[in-house]
Design brief:
This protein is α/β, with parallel strands linked by helices. The chain has 14 helices and five strands. It has helices at 7-17, 20-31, 33-38, 41-48, 52-61, 67-85, 95-117, 120-131, 143-157, 169-177, 195-206, 220-224, 245-264, 266-282, and strands at 135-140, 163-166, 183-189, 210-215, 227-230. It has a five-stranded parallel beta sheet, sandwiched between helices.
């Protein structure tokens, strides 16, 4: 049998397609994962109404070496994804207010927490580098980090900067390979251990590029970059709500973009004017609309 990668799925399949005793045991385990992980073989056998050798055979049918190995994989599954396995059902009372409050409250808290610990001197220093860069390379892998790389590209091109964002690992290395001393690389990673991003930063630095990491302190990416804007993601226990860290990271990105625009000053006003003019000619002529958003 193949090595176990997800014992929960194995249990779910066993509950549907296993032998009679295996189905009974699988349903018992899935109904109370914690007790199954902590109970003795005799406890499990008694609760399922089967013999102890049947429990051992059940564990082997799952791909485990025995009961002890089964408990190890079960404990690992609970540690990694327990919140998703036994979540409380959603209450329907005042759902609209509860959902709105959960999202907006967490977003505000995340932004305030990030702002309180942010090194603004580092932010201004990064902005000054970007303002005078020959080229800018934005890197990010994964949902939030790749989105941030694309958003920074969107913010900087309108300031007249030559900027590109890459989320593909192969292309990240390729673009890093043609970096020069007038290149500034800005890399995003919440964990700081996205391998392709770390390697691209190391590669670009080898060719003299200035490298900036917005990531967790003491991570591989933080160690690889010249300059680090430290960020630690703190999440609540609401498994249904998207990560609130996105809002904090977007706030940091907007601070960098704002400071970069101020550093470029006269060079940026004409490009912003042209974008505003071009959009208003093609769309509704409302000068109060955001610039290209």
């Amino acid at each position: 049998m193949k090595p176990i990668s997800d014992i929960i799925v194995r249990l779910q399949m066993m509950a549907e397609d296993g032998s009679r005793s295996d189905r009974r045991l699988a349903l018992l385990v899935l109904s109370d994962l914690d007790s199954a992980g902590k109970g003795t073989i005799s406890d499990i056998a008694r609760r399922a109404g089967v013999s102890e050798p049947t429990v051992t055979r059940f564990c082997r049918n799952l791909g485990c070496e025995g009961v002890r190995d089964f408990k190890f994989h079960l404990a690992q599954a609970i540690a990694f994804g327990g919140a998703y396995l036994q979540a409380e059902p959603l209450a329907r009372d005042a759902r609209e207010q509860r959902v709105a409050g959960a999202v907006t409250g967490a977003a505000i808290t995340a932004i305030e927490r990030a702002a309180a610990s942010l090194d603004m001197a580092a932010v201004i220093g990064v902005a000054d580098r970007l303002a005078h860069a020959g080229r800018v390379l934005c890197l990010g892998s994964g949902g939030t980090s790749s989105m941030l790389a694309g958003e920074l590209q969107n913010r900087l091109f309108r300031l007249g900067l030559s900027v590109v964002a890459q989320a593909d690992g192969q292309l990240q290395r390729m673009y890093a390979s043609v970096a020069t001393p007038d290149t500034v690389v800005v890399a995003f990673s919440i964990s700081g251990f996205a391998r392709s991003v770390v390697e691209a930063v190391e590669l670009a630095r080898q060719y003299g590029a200035a490298t900036v990491a917005i990531t967790a302190p003491d991570s591989d990416l933080a160690r690889a970059a010249d300059t680090v804007i430290g960020f630690r993601a703190v999440e609540d226990d609401n498994i249904y709500k998207p990560s609130s860290s996105r809002f904090a990271l977007l706030a940091i990105l907007d601070m960098i973009a704002t400071a970069t625009a101020e550093s470029r000053d006269g060079k940026v006003r004409e490009t912003l004017r042209r974008i505003k003019q071009g959009l208003n000619v093609l769309k509704v002529g409302d000068p109060r609309l955001p610039l290209g958003d």
